[in-house]
Fold:
Amino acid sequence: MLQDDKRINTILEILLEYTQKDFSRSIPVSEKGDDLDALSAGLNTMAEELQAFMAASKKQEEQVVERTAQLENNIRQLKESEEKFQKAFQASAAGITITRISDATYLDVNDTFIKMTGFSKEELINHTSAELGMIVNIKKREELLKQVRQKGWAKNFEMTVRHKSGSLLDILSSIETIVLNGEKYAINIIFDISGRKKAEAQLETVNKELEAFSYSVSHDLRAPLRAVDGYAKMLEDDYAGLFDEEGKRLLGIIQYNAKKMSHLIDDLLAFSRLGKKALQKTKLDMNELIEGVLIDLGKTTRHKAQIKIDRLHPAEGDYGLINQVLVNLVSNGIKYSSKKKEPLVEISSEAKKEEIIYSVKDNGEGFNMKYADKLFGVFQRLHTPEEFEGTGVGLAIVQRIISKHGGKVWAEAEPGKGATFSFTLPINQITIKNGKHRS
Amino acid sequence: MENTEVEIVLVEDNPHDAEMTIRALKKNNLVNKIVHLKDGAEALDFLFGTGPYEGRNTGIKPKVILLDLKMPKVDGIDVLRKLKSEASTKTIPVVVLTSSSESPDVSLCYELGANSYIVKPVGFENFSKSITDLGLYWLVLNQPLR
Structure:
């Protein structure tokens, strides 16, 4: 019996440990197989099951903690994102509205939109732009709504709307749709482009005026010039016998200057026309272009220059304008080398990473580099008409055309040894670098 | 003079351009009977036999009308429009002369029925040559409607 008491004590001791969640010891089971042994074995099984259950519940508890942390994080992110949206919504330089598509009423509007339209938030929310008299062209609005309903979006839609004060403003609107609780809403991003529209209209007026001006310059300056030249010629034809040598010389000067002024007018007009012409870019075979230029030049100018042309890189540009650049540069090369014994004009090209450099080199008169900045100005010349004919517009035209193409022009020269005029044409206007657009 | 044959009607407000034109035509013996009218209003009066030209035999048609565009009172465009819209005058060839290639009116002139459009060269020699050429074409080569 004493033996049994001891066994019971051991069982109680270990059970006490179990209540402290200490399952390190299991209850000894003797080989007798009596009742106490059966009890011990049963308790051991229970302890194992309890242990397993506790482990499982602990794991579950941990999962709950983790999940709670995740949820808290999600809520925080949501709050942050909501805050970000609210900040963006309010701080945006664009007017932003959220409208229910079914009845076109405003659900929310930002401060910019309030300022833009002159209506208060209270006046706007739950009302439609049509109710508030903002819509100027109902057809245009219907067209916009129809597109939003069909496609779910609209981009850069131009409209005129009425400010609360009654004044009109031009807006640019882009719309995306979202679904909230099964209801469709339109997010409308709106820019006030009244300023831009006004500037565009002014620009058009100025352009028209400029066109009218150049028309009248070409028309009204030519008529008296024709009379000066014509009457001088009549004098020459009908009264040649009455003039001595000096008289004929003076008459010749009148005619020479009349012709010169006529060239100046032509060149000035050509230069001013460049401003209004939009570029029409195509692929250009520069060798083919140069060949054409040389054939045309051969018809109008007699020269003995040798012309060397490399195999040139193709380019992208406006055919007519780049042709003009080549005409001006090559004819300059021929002109300024014409006094040399063996005039030589060399045309070459070199490909760089983002651009191609084209050069026209001559072995002619050259110039002092300290005057280089004067080369490309309108009516700027480095030579007198007695030395070399010219109006001083050719290089100004070259520069204007090349800068319109996004390239640059420069010259290198040495007096008496010749000059090299170079220009670049970008290989591709939108260069993609490291997968990102350059801004 | 109003009832005799007229070969060329020159409508030109600039007296010097007119003198040079007439000189070029006469010098090459292309024409003797030129009528010079100094603005659009006078041109219409002459061609339709109205105003100071009342009673002129308008049945006699010029072989060609040389018409300047920029003129006081009635400008060349209005003259052209009127001529080409009237049955009695619409078959008369009209050559538009202008000082500028910048003119916004080229296409309008052709739409209105101009038969030719010429920019007057500045240099007198080229100017004379252009006038001589067009005189030769319209007075000698061209077969008018009888």
In short: The mean pLDDT of chain B is 85. The beta strands of chain B are 8-11, 34-37, 64-68, 94-98, 116-119.
